[in-house]
Amino acid sequence: MKRKINYMDARFSTRIDGHSRRVRVWLCARCTAWHDAPNRPTGCAQCAHTEFIYCASRKEAKRAVQLLFEERHGVISGLEFQKTFPIFVVDIKTRRIVNPKVSYRPDSTYHRDGELVVEDVKGTSAEGDDPVFTLKRKLFEACYGTPVTVVRKVT
Question: Which pLDDT tens digit goes with each residue over 40-56?
Answer without folding.
Answer: 888 888 888 888 888 88
